[in-house]
């Protein structure tokens, strides 16, 4: 019986494991190794690690965990999890089943690339979901915003923080109201509704260079940022009956608690602000609450009492 099984070995899961290891909890961390930012060349905005490679951030965190012998890491997929009595039964891809007193899902989110040609090819290397993560590297360069209606207007205006040369591309009808068009016009943002034909450049060297449209038009650009929409959650969230909010993220309570007793959800899976450093902080908060809950259970059952003298 583990004290805590953590599903997911990104910043959220790894930081939770670190705090739980320091609290001498018996932890199993399972990671399938498919992080959300796997195509990225850097993790920006992570205190003392700004610009670190995503893979290196995880490696450094795993190296630190070696000092805590009660933490075990297995590189595999968790196929199912269920609450049984007061504990959790967790099934691994090997067919093995493990039990844990508490469960932390730090499974992140899965993004779909936007629906235009070559978007997947350039995803994370020229086509980005988040200007906070990749805007600085393209400051003052010509930028393309991608999105329709209010979402398109929003991402286009947001990009003016990083560059005054922004074009909104909508790949078909823009779905903009007259007021929204006037607003964009006031900020010098042109709108192109022509369908995208192809993206030019090399995702592994130099990134995006040009967006080409059906009909022959083209825009020279350094990066395309798309209006971020809902993402897909791990199937475990649904299996366990966790409440999911409007944005597709889990609605957690204090310290990442969920509506299911003993179950916590931390990191991208749980909140709207999706930065690696926020995920790590949520993992730490969940670890604090998990350890407190475990201690309270121990005290209730007399598990920390000493033998009478
Ligand atoms: C293109 C891109 C660029 C980004 N750039 C930045 C940036 O520069 N700075 C920044 O702060 N943030 C950035 N982000 C956001 C950042 O990636 C996330 O905020 C962060 O990775 C969230 O951490 P997490 O631990 O919640 O999830 P993740 O890092 O996604 O890790 C989740 C882990 O859980 C595993 N997992 C899922 N289901 C299972 C299962 N059933 N069994 C076992 N393992 C499972 C996955 O394989 C994965 O390894 C970027 C995101 C994208 C998409």
If you had to describe this structure to a student in words, what would you say it looks like?
By secondary structure, the chain is of the alpha/beta class. The chain has 2 domains: 2-111 and 231-300, FAD/NAD(P)-binding domain (3-Layer(bba) Sandwich), CATH 3.50.50.60; 119-226, FAD/NAD(P)-binding domain. The chain has helices spanning 11-22, 54-65, 119-122, 131-134, 149-159, 178-186, 235-239, 276-300, and strands at residues 2-7, 27-30, 71-74, 78-84, 87-92, 97-105, 127-128, 143-146, 166-169, 190-192, 196-202, 207-213, 218-220, 223-226, 263-265. The strands form 3 sheets. Strands 1, 2, 3, 4, 5, 6 and 15 form a 7-stranded mixed sheet that branches. It has a 5-stranded parallel sheet with strand order 7-14-8-9-10. A 3-stranded antiparallel sheet has the order 11-12-13, with no helix packed on it. The longest helix has 25 residues, at 276-300. The chain starts with a strand and ends in a 9-residue tail after the last helix. Bound molecules: flavin-adenine dinucleotide (FAD). Flavin-adenine dinucleotide binds at residues 7-13, 30-37, 39-40, 42-46, 77-78, 106-108, 111, 124, 128-130, 133, 234, 236, 267-269, 274-277, 279.
